[in-house]
Amino acid sequence: MQIKRQIKRAQKDLRTVSLVVNDDPEWASTIAYQAMLRSGRALLYAHGYLPADGQQHKTVVEITGIILGKEYELLVKHFERMRKKRNIFFYESEDANNLTEAHKAAEAAKELVDLLKRKIIMLDPQRLLKL
Description:
- This protein has helices at 2-20, 25-46, 56-68, 73-92, 99-123.
- It is mainly alpha-helical and 131 residues long.
- The termini are close together.
C-alpha cells in the first residue's frame, strides 16, 4: 500500500509542478525533487528497505543509484544535485533555480518517476494491477 501511495503522490507532484513553474521556479523545482524522492522511496520499499536514518533524503538518492546502476548514473546525479538545491532553498531561503532549471528539473523528475514505476512493476508484475 505504501508503494502505491508514494507513486500516486509523485505523479500528483509532477502535475503540480506544471501549475507553479512559471510563477515560482524555485518551488516548482522543489516539488519536482519531492516527486523524485517519493518514487525513490517507493523503489526502496519495493526492495524491502525502509530508509530510517537521520539522512533519509540522501539515503534514498544513494540507494536508488545503487539499485539503478551505472546505466542511470547521470539521472541519479541530477537527483542528487536537486537534493542539494532543495536543501539550500529550504534551509537558507536562497533561490537556487531559474525557470530553465525548473523545466529541466521537471523533465528529470518525470523521467525518474516513470522509470522507477516500471522497475517496481518488473519486480512484481501483479503490482501493475495495484499501481
